[in-house]
Amino acid sequence: MFFPLAFLSGVTGAFFKALSITMGSALVISYLFTAFAVPILAHLIIDFDKWQDPASVPDGKDGFGHLHRALLDRLFRKPWLILAGVLPLLVLGWVAYTHVGTGFMPAMDEGGFVIDYRTEPGTSLAETNRELLQIEDIIKATPDVRTFSRRTGLGLGGDFSEPNTGDFFVRLKPAGARRPIEEVMASIRKKIKRDVPGVDVELAQLMEDLIGDLTGVPQPIDIKLFAADPSKLVPEANKVAAAIGEIPGVVEIRNGVTLAGDSLAMHIDPAAAALEGVDPAQITDAVTAYLNGSVATEIPETLKQVGVRVWLPPDMKRRESQLAALPIRAPDGHLFPLGRVAAFTVNAGQPEIDRDNLQRTVAVTARIEGRDLGSTITDVKKALQHLHLGASGFTYELGGLYKQQQIAFAGLAKVFVAALVAEFILLLFLYEAFWLPVIILGSSLLSTTAVFTGLWISNVELNITAMMGMTMIVGISTEMAIFYVSEYTELAGKMPRREALLEAARNRLRPILMTSLAAILTLLPLAFALGQGAAMQQPLAIAIIAGLLLQLPLVLLAMPVLIGLTLPKPSS
User: Fold this and answer.
1) Parallel, antiparallel, or unpaired: how do β-strands 342-351 and 199-205 relate?
2) In this structure, what are the phi and psi dihedrals at residue 123, rounded to the nearest 5 degrees?
3) In principle, which of 21, 359, 516, 560 could form an S-S bond with 501, CB 3.0–4.6 Å?
């Protein structure tokens, strides 16, 4: 089960490669210890002349074993009772599947968060600092905050930014002495929006922010708009931002338009240029060389040619208002000012140009508060359908953490299928039969319905950690089934097969119960998120515990009856 996980890539691979290697190594060591060390230790410590196996107690004196035998006898007489029990489980699993929330990373309280801020484009460093001092007062007035730091013009990862951007890192007090981190973040966000309206902020916990920076998609919602006419992108982006702003739980909405400053457009009069003996292309080349320089020669390097550009130093260049006086030399040698053949207009507030696969794009982004990722994206898709973007000549794609979630789920689904195939092949070689592997894997797959039910009841999202737990429960369930089926195949050579089914269930009752209870008790602290960082593995623990609780009756009660149905009827 763990072998395919080693081949995962991306964020999921970074999280689970180490886990797969650790679990695989632990299982190998456990096997070696059980096969070679346990028998020696048992021989040295246990006095087998006095010790009695609890499983050897007669059924009449073993209440639990007697109840198990009575239930098994009744199911053998009325196999349809298994179907009556399985159908409600399937229905409950389907209802839980349609209602359980989905996410990317487990929700956890990291004890701190990041506030990414952006003031209005063109804001001076002094004005940015004045507004940030107001945010600092809000943070200081929050009783849950222990300490904080601020970067201006610099990102958390050390990257340089513009003077109107930066971030705060806020460290909270210990968990018992403050509100939950989501409540603190929501409170600070509302106060900043109310008291410092000139600053746009995004709040995220540290791990989410770092993963977003690494993947280049820090927001859960990222709608990339494409259009054949780039001039229509900005108005449509504003419409999309307004539409998703009406969705409950969607906060920190940005239309994706970042103003870079003003542009200066030059309009050449062809008739005036002809009177001077030049054409517009010659004038454009002259102005371009003046502003940007020109490549005079190239220096060869190992893999490329490096151009050498000759240009004027900045102190010799004219300002935009003086470009009209720039002298242009005509082919006959006379000079004339640029303003004689060209006019200039200033276009204020030009946005930055972003491209994806060589296409102009604008990305509308937002974060989610108080909702799961899956249901929110469903509402976003409905809102986009109502805008009829395709009919307007626009196309869009969903990116952000939602896209990373889909990539991760697809990778884990491939791992799940690969593990099932590998287990089926292993069981075929082990038992040299077809129906035994089918019954074993069928019961293991049925236990996954309990995973959705457990997550739904505990109000925990289905995320990459829960998917990992669902993959693991199939392997654990198969292991439990092998305990029983191997005992049955050994006894089948000594007694009638139907008696072997009952005897194997009786012999394996206590070992299967003990191993299952040991796993459940071990995972309970994680399931209740007890301890620092336990919330990261909480969905995995809930998935495994829920699967084990269902697999126990499947192996001890349903599997013997199902195997019995595949046997030939005894001759009369």
Assistant:
1) unpaired
2) -65, 135
3) 560
Residue 154 has pLDDT above 70, yes or no: no
**Cβ neighbour number for residue 228 with a 10 Å cutoff:** 10
d(CA 184, CA 205): 11
- CA–CA distance, 537 with 18 (Å, rounded to integer): 14
CA dist., res. 389 & res. 237, Å (int): 11
Q: Which two tokens stand for residue 176?
A: 């018992």
Q: What does 235-261 look like in DSSP terms, one character per residue?
A: HHHHHHHHHHTTSTTEEEEE-S--EEE
Q: Is the predicted pLDDT of residue 121 greater than 90, yes or no?
A: no
Burial group, residue 411, by CB count within 10 angstroms (0-12, 13-18, 19+): buried
CA atoms within 13 A on the CB side of 281: 0
b (16+ CB within 10 A) / e for 393-408: ebebeebbbbbbbebb
- Mean pLDDT, residues 163-191 taken together: 87
Write the CATH number of the domain with boundaries 220-258+352-398.
Answer: 3.30.70.1320
> Rounded CA gap, 233 and 231, in Å?
6
**Rg over CA atoms, the chain:** 34
According to the model, what pLDDT value does residue 73 have?
84
Q: Is the model more confident about 340 or about 569?
A: 340
- For the question of whether the overall pTM of this predicted structure is more than 0.85, the answer is no
Q: What dotted CATH number matches 60-99+408-566?
A: 1.20.1640.10
Mean pLDDT of 322-328: 84
Q: What secondary structure letter does DSSP report for 492?
A: T
Residues 408-451 have pLDDT tens digits of 888 888 888 888 888 889 888 888 888 888 988 888 888 889 99
Taking every pair of C-alpha atoms in the chain, what is the biggest distance, in angstroms?
121
pLDDT 10s digits, 551-572:
988 888 888 888 888 877 655 4
For residue 569, the SS3 value is: coil
List the beta bridge partners of residue 251: 367
Overall average pLDDT of the 263-273 stretch: 87
Residues 538, 529: contact at Cβ < 8 Å? yes
pLDDT at res. 135: 92
- Do 109-219 and 220-258+352-398 fold alike per CATH? yes
> 383-392: string of b/e by CB count within 10 Å (b at 16+)?
bbeebebeee
The third-level CATH classification (topology) of the domain covering 264-349 is 3.30.2090
- Rounded CA-CA distance 550/313 in Å is 77
CATH class of domain segment(s) 109-219:
alpha beta
Instruction: Residue 68: name the closest of 403, 560, 398 by CA.
Output: 560
Q: Where are the domains of the chain?
A: 1-51, 60-99+408-566, 109-219, 220-258+352-398, 264-349
Position 22: which residue type? Answer: T
